[in-house]
Amino acid sequence: MPAIADIVFQGERFQCSSLRTLYHPLTGTLVVSDCHFGKTTHFRKNALPLPEMATNKDFDRLALALNQFAVKHVVFLGDLFHSHENREWQMLSDFLYRYPYLTFTLVKGNHDILPLETYKRAGITVTAAVKINNLHLVHDIDETEDLSGPFISGHVHPGYRIKGLGKQQLSLPCFFAGNNNLIMPAFGSLTGLALIEKLNVDDRVYCFTEKQFYRLP
After folding, report:
1. Fewest CB atoms within 10 A around its CB: which of 34, 155, 178, 216?
2. What is the rounded distance in angstroms from the CA atom of residue 88 to the CA atom of residue 110?
C-alpha cells in the first residue's frame, strides 16, 4: 500500500502520498506536479534510449492516486507534458477520458507549450494559478511577481540526502515545507532529483519511499 503522511501547511490540512501527490480533503483536490508525460517518446526520437515502460508505470501510478482518495478535482501543477505533441499525448487524453466525473486543471509551467485548444480537447482547463483558500498553487514561485504567498509549487523536483553511519548516503524525493512555500516532488519517473537543504530551523522535510515516509527534524 502507498504510504500517507499528514501535513498542516498555513493552517490547511493535506495528505502527502508516496505516489507523489498531495491531497486536500476539504475540497477533494489532488495536486500532481511535473508529470512530464511525453518525455520518453521525445528523447527516443532523438536517439536517447529511455525505457518505454516508465510511461506505463506513471499512468498506472496516476490511476492509483486517483483512487487513493475521494478526489473531485485534479490540479496538474505545471509541466504536464514535456515538449511538443507526440503519441503519448493521445495516451494521456485517453487516460483522462476515463474519469468524466473529475475536473482537470493545468497550472501552466515552462514545458507546457501545446496550443490551448489541444488541452481543451482533452478536458483540461489551463490557468496561471489556482487558489485554495489563502494558498496560491503555482508552478514556479520565481514567476509569480504579481502574487503574494503562501504558495504550493513544483518545478524544482526536490530531493533530500539522508546521511547515515559509515558515510552511507541515500537520496530520496521529498515534500519540502518552508515558511511560505510547500514544494511538491516531481511525479514523473524520469525527472531526476534536485537536492535541497534546510535553510531554517522550521523547514520540514518529508522524504519517502514507496511504502514509508520519513519526517526529518
Report:
1. 216
2. 19
In angstroms, rounded to a whole number, what is the distance separating the alpha carbons of residues 2 and 4? Answer: 7
203: its cell numbers:
523547514
Q: Give the count of alpha carbons within 13 A of 111, CB side only.
A: 22
Distance CA(174)–CA(183), nearest Å, equals 8
Give the sign of the dihedral formed by CA 104, CA 89, CA 95, CA 32.
negative
> How far apart (Å, rounded) are the C-alpha atoms in residues 215 and 15?
13
Nearest one of 124, 78, 80, 121 to 104, comparing CA atoms: 124
Nearest-CA neighbor of 13 among 173, 147, 182? 182
Domains of the chain plus CATH, in order, are 4-156 (3.60.21)
Q: What is the mean pLDDT of residues 184-193?
A: 88
